[in-house]
Structure formats: structure tokens, C-alpha cells
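Please predict the structure of the following assembly.
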Amino acid sequence: MPDNADLECRAISKSFDDFQAVKEVSFDVPPGTFFSILGPSGCGKTTLLRMIAGFQAPSGGDLLIKGKSMLNVPPNKRPVSMVFQHLALFPMMSIGANVGFGLRQRGVNKVDIKKQVERVLERVGLGGVADRPVDSLSGGQKQRVAIARCMVLEPDVLLLDEPLGALDLKLREHMKIELKKLQSEFNTTFVYITHDQSEALVMSDQIAVMNHGVFEQVGTARELYYHPTTAFVAGFVGEANKYQAKVQVAGAGSLQLLTRDGVALQGVDAGEGLKEGDMTQVFVRPEAVRLSRRQEDIGNLGNTGNGTVESVLFNGANSQLILRDSATGSEMSVALPQTSEFRDLSKGDPIFFGWEPDQTRCYRQAAG
Amino acid sequence: MASDKSRLGLILLMAPLAIWLMTLIVLPHVGMFLVSLQEKVGIRQYETSLANYAVFFNEPLYWNTFARTAYMSITATVLTLLIGFPVAYYIAKLTRGRTKTTLFLMCLIPFWVSELVRTFGWMILLRETGVLSSFLQYIGVLAGPVEFLYNDAAIMTGLVYTSMLFMVVPLVTTLDSLDDSLIEAGYDLGGSSFSILREIVIPHAMPGIVSGCIVVFMLSLGNYLTPILLGGKDSLWFTGLIYDQFITRFNWELGSAFGFLLLGLSSLIVFLALKLSGQSLGKTMGR
């Protein structure tokens, strides 16, 4: 454990009556990191964030900020600030009064407050709006005011509770880049929770994938995407085609599998120590699958098959092809390269496909 | 044609309201106003003058009674607000679901009984041989029976009790609409409970506070039963004076003038209070 971590959780837990929302989660966030907690709704990420902010007391474990335990520190005394899901700007105050609220509570004199408020508003690109009412701002500007209101206090850790959820898609894409920029500008540790994987993948230095109250995996966006260590992460981060298969032969690093539909596949063990006869879940990314109109082109790939085009989901560079495997009759989604070769593909066309065994990650099938 | 039809519809829709306003509010007041301008100069002889209004300003008893009524009503309003606010905050913010409904209902239940019965209830509690006096004698605090009725404190108790609902309901409604995350954000930014109350909760609840205060003040000022029953003969309540003029003295002219003065002066007090607190009626009612 590094001593200089801004935020450190040691086996932190939270139970409500008969339900354990957070189960002994441990992690640490080095200074200046953009740390995201990614998980489906109900996974306990909000509870975890509220414990860090101090609105909920952990039932067990310890929470340290800059090496000091925060267990008995009330939320208004913690060196963390939070950007709320719906921002929680005070509608009864002007923008300047909103941003200056925290400084007023600290008893900073009026002249300094005015100066600091103006400076932080300029840093988020909103100079000269201090006297205007909050309602006069657009969604993205409100977002920046909410961040300015926290950053003016120079917190050790800034917590963000899905703040982009209420914005429309275009603005959300824009704010992702802006948030990342603001984070590197202020050089403050951000802890960001979201259920939107693209937000987490784009912005974060480190991502923790959370499910049922535990961290499934912590790592960089690339690690999570290319080397997911659990079946949940493989399925939750990014798209994937899923199969169920039984291990026929377990060799050194490579596996011979037989799917339920009787198709032989080759795959790799994702670190689960799979043995002969184990039931596994197999994940294949849509962009790992190569397409061709001729069988020879894909003949040298480990796993091959043929089928017919079921539908083409055109979305520019993110277009997808849904094909139906002739051998099994099951559907498979494949990233469709926007080259002239496949531009005229239409429903019912025959197609060959294949992918490498090392793009075929296998996880132990959960019992039951 | 269509516009004619919709116009007719509008007229028909507004008719009950217009009739109600005219017959029950405007007409009686016009009548009262005309009566108040009549000065009795002999048997069945009247002249138009402002003499009845002059009586009010020239006779210190009337003047003082009004001032006392207004002062007591303002005190009752402030007390109701001070007691009602924490109750409303507790109901609106600290309870959920069934508890909330139950508590809200418990505030409401006393108002299913008539005001007269409720006031008699207080008399049973506070009179010389009543529950409070007997209990204090029983536990040895008092040596002999004490009369708790017929003083200003008894009137105040009754007024606050009678008005509580009208303060709690608008406050619960406005506090309910306050987003919990605003309060959390206040704490998160380093605010103390007091500064959050002052800077966030009270500004948000201001429309509820203002409308609650106006209703409670007007109700207290115009209350007749509670001051008379709990305050006794010496209660000196302005509505009591009006009642006396109309019923005991048969002096309808002076009674009408008093009625109008009550209306005018109470409106003036509300107006001044709104000005002092920097609120406007439109802002309060509009939200």
C-alpha cells in the first residue's frame, strides 16, 4: 500500500438490515488520478461514494484520506467535495454565491471570496457570470459551476456521482473531454462513479468494475477491455458474443472446447485454471471476428464458420453486422469494417467468418 | 361562431364564482360600508359622516384593544411558526412513507372536531378544578387549586393550538419540494446545520412561511371563540368589541365601522410585514 495515496479504503463494508451493499472493498487512489467506479445500477457504487463523502457510515473497515482515518469525521469536515447527480446547485443563490458558499462557511473575508470565485469561474471558462441566477445557465455550464463550487475549496478528492447522466448525448460526449481536461488542469484526484462504460473508458486512468458490492477488477481501460479477469467484466465492459462450452482438452494455455451446439472451438484460459470437463463461458469481441466472402481468406484462423447475413446495423464507423451461424443457427454480432468490400452486404448474403483462439477468452461457468 | 361558443362556456364556468363573490362577499361589504357611514343623530334619523370611524380613534379603549389584538396575533403567529417549523421539517424531511402519512394525519385529526369543542377541551385541562391543576396538586407542586384560565397565556395557548395546522400544511408542502441533495451539498461544502438552515432551508421555505404566517395572523386576528372562552370577560379582543356593538348594543353603525377598520388595519399589517421581509404576495402565491 503506498503511503502517499489520496484516498484509501481498507476492507470497507456497508450493510442495510439484511442486505450487504458493499462487501469488504479495498483500494487506493494515488494523487492526481482519475479513478472511476463502473457498475450496473444497484451494485453498491453509490453507497460506496456516499461513504467516502461521509453521508453514510461504513459498517466495517476503514477509510483514509491523505493517510488520516475519516471514520469519525462528519461530511462538512472532510477534505472531499462532491458533484451530485443532479448537481444540487442552490437555486436561491446567484452563481457567485453558489461557488462562494464553501468559502463563506470557512469564514474567508468577502473580498477574498469574490476574488477566488471569479478566478475559479474563469478557470472553468465562465468568467463574469457571478451575479447571474443559476437558472440562466445551460446544462453544460451548470455542470462546470458545480465543479467550480467544489474546486474553489481545493479538496483532496473530488467525488462525482454520475454527473453526466442528465445531459443529452452530444453534450455528454463534449463534457467527457472537458471533465478530463479540467481534471488534469486542477490536478486533483477525481473519483467518478458511472454505469456508462464509455464515460469510464474515455476519462479514467484507473477503473474499478463493481458488481454485487465487490470490485471485480481494477485496472486501466485497456486492461479491462483486453484482459478482463472475470466473466462479469468481460460481459460488462465492451460488447461480446457469448457461448457456453465444455472443455475437451486443457493444454498449456490453450483449450479445446465443444459448445452446446456441438461446434469445436479453440480458446484461452483467462486465468481460471480450467480443467477437462469444466463448463465455461466463452467471450468473443465483435471486432475480433474477421469477415470474408471467400472461405480461403479465413482458413488460417483458429475458429471459423459460415453463415448468412441477418441484418446490417449501420452506424457509420461503429456499424455492426448480425449474422446467423449455419452450423448452430445462433446469432453473432460482428463489427463491420467500413471498407468497400462489405458496403453492398444485405440480408441473406452468405458470409464466412473466423477469429483467433487467443481472442477467445474462457471463464469458469458459475455453479448452478 | 366557435369563439362565441367558447365565450359562452367561459361565462357559464365563471358564473358560480361571480355569483358567490357578489352575493356573499361584495354585497355584504358594500352594505356594511354604507351602514358604517351613517351617524345616528336622533331616533331613526341618520346623517352621512365619518363620525363612527372618529369614535375608534378618539376612544383609547377601542384603539388599545385593537393594538392588543394585533400584538397578540403577531406573537401567536411567531410562536406558531417557531413550533410549527421543526414539526413540519421533521414530517417533510426526516420521515418517509407510512410514518409520514400517520404524522401528517395526526396533525389533521384535531381539526375534525369543531373549534368550540376543542376550546372546551382546553377549558377542561386548564380550569381551577381541571386536569393540570389537579395533577400539579397531586404531585405536590401546588398547595391549592390554581386557575390557569382567563389570562393571556391561556389565550395564546388556544390561538397557537388552533392555528398550528394552517402553519404546518404549507410548510410541509414547501419543505417536501426541497431536494435532499441540496442539504447534503450544503454539508459537503462545509456548512454547519445552522448555516444550512439559514442559507438553504429557510430561503427555500420562504413562500410557505409567508403564506402560513398570513393565514395564521388573519385567523388569530379574526378569532372570536378562543379569546372569549379562554380569556374570559377581560380578554379584550377586537372581534369581541364588534360582536358587542352588533349584538349587545344594537349599534350596527359603529360595529360596521369597526369591521372595516379591522379589515383595513390587518391588511396594512400584512402589507408592512411583506415589505419588511422583502417578500411579495405574487411571489408567495405564485410558487
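The CA atoms of residues 100 and 191 of chain B lie 27 Å apart. Chain B touches chain A through 17 residues (CB under 8 Å).
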